[in-house]
Every structure is written in C-alpha cells, then in structure tokens.
Amino acid sequence: MSSTYGTLFKISTFGESHCPGVGAVVDGVPPRLRITPEQLQVQLDRRRPGQNKLGTQRKESDKIQILSGVENNLSLGTPIALLVANTDQRPGDYSSMRDIPRPSHADFTYTMKYGINASSGGGRASARETIARVAGGAIAEIFLTTKYGIEIIAWVSSVGNIDAPAVDMDNITRTLVDQNDVRCPDNVSAAAMEDEIEKATAAKDSIGGIITCVCRNIPAGWGEPAFNRLEAALAQAMLSIPAAKAFEIGSGFGGTRQRGSVHNDPFVRKQDRLGTSSNNSGGVQGGISNGEPVYFRVGFKPTATIGHPQRTATYAGEETILAAKGRHDPCVVQRAIPIVEGMAALVLADMALMQQARLG
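User: That's the sequence. What structure does it adopt?
Assistant: Structure tokens below.
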C-alpha cells in the first residue's frame, strides 16, 4: 500500500518517469460531482515541465485522460481512473549513470530496498509521479469547493536566501500567484528569485525554496484526535512530495521563541461563529480544525541531479566524478505549487468524509 493514500477518499498512483505513462485511481469520490478533463488540466498545466526557462526543458503536454468513474461529466461514485502519457522520454541521457548512484537522490536507497531500480529518470522517485497527485488532488478540490466553498492557495515565499514579504492570507489568489514565472505574489521578490535560479542554472547547480499554503473556509471539527491529527496528516502528505524536507504549521518554529501570553489565540465572536483574534495555531488546535484558515509552509531542498561535477562513488565503491546529464529543474518550488495544493486537497477531502461519517 506504499502507493496509496487516504482512508475514505483514497488515491493510488502508478508509473515511472520514463515508462509509457503515469496515472492514478481515485476512490471514494461522491457521486454527481461535475468533473471534466478541462477542470483537471488547469492544475496539470501549472505543474507540467517546459513552461519557461526556470525549469526543466523536457516537453510534455501532460494531457489528462479520464478512463472510468465519470459519465457525461458527472462522477458515478465508482473509482475514477486517470492517465497521462509520457511522450518526451530520453532514457539514453542516463546510460552513463547506471553504475553511479546520484548524490542525495533515491537511486541508492531504491536499489537497497528492492534489489533493482528503474534505469532512467529516477523511476517512482521522479517528480513525474506527482502528475497523479495533482490530477487526483484536482478532483478532491472540486469536491471541497462544491460542498464547502473551500479555497486552497499556495505560493513561493522564498528561494535560497531571498524571502518575500508576508502576504494577506485572506485575499491571496491564484491569479496573483501566477502573475510571474516564479509564482511569488510579490513581483520585486519574484525578480530576485528568478535571478537566483538563473545563476544556479548557469553554474549547472540547483537551489531550494519554501512554499506557503493557506486553506480557507474549512469548518471547525475536521481532524481526528491523537494519531490522525489534521496537522499530522498534512505533514505526512507534504513530506511525501519529492524533494520536500521540512514542514511547519501556524507559527511553526517561530512560536517556540514566544511566551504563551503572546502566542495564545484569544477567542472572539465573529458574525455567526466563535473565532480567534489571532491565528498562531494555524487553524488547528488539538489536531482538529477550529474554523480559522489553515496555513503551513513546506521546505524543498535543492534538486539532487545537477550537471556540476561532484566527487562520489560507484555502486562498487570506486571513486569517480559525476556530472549528471538529463533535463532537470534547477529549482522545484515554482512547479511544486499545484502539487502542494493537490496534496492539501486530498487530506481535506479525506477529513471531510470522515467527519461526515462521524456525524451520520
């Protein structure tokens, strides 16, 4: 079950970087939801490679096919199968690396686990696998938006040492996020981030960054006590994304430097509900949503595969120099935006169905 996520709203993904295609089976989708390929394609287009000079130049259209579970653009309540073809594979780019595990990549660990590994493109460890998450997440988002009016918006808040100023989380939109190639809503910061990524590209190197995400209009009461807390589920989902190395929700590590008298979120009356005057909790208390926006940050490491020569060793332990070939992102964060949004949607859709089941 290592390729399946969810309890009631489930997604199972399949496919490798250079196989004929990648896809997903999404189960637990309520019936009579309007779902069209065009709706799913919007997020896939934001993720696809070759969008601009900041990412990999692999050219894929990533056109989605809905194979089952939808008829006349309405969900049937049965499993929805999704498929995207791989059309621009170049397995030959990896022939010189078959005997050399790439530093900080999954080549070595997959080989140790299975005794075999995909010979090109990173196999299941490739970011190509995330196509399935984005497509399945788009279905989850349709459910959340249709039934609850939930909005999920992610944006790039830092690249390397360049930090964008804080944004108004109540008013941030995907239109603002997508106004530049870096997907940072602050254009001044975005220009500096783009320059930093281009410098890494010129040096045949890579650089990391941070994505911030806000989920608005989540009802109070979602999440399970103890082991399936809402923030724990979000952390698991985000850290399952390739290259993700850090997660914090609400005040995060910054909150550890405050006293309780500063960090606590006092309750206040907000129109027809009880809310909080601040949101250091990030919309979650005791593992359960409190009705305030849920916001979190995900840290992504620099891309492991780089053309910059590195001293390393072959599988046999012989010292060698590796200057990796292939087409890879010098920075992943601008393309990871819909992946973060999709994984958040999958978590929330699962929590929504669990809460529905609890309340009957």
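The first helix runs from residue 37 to 47.
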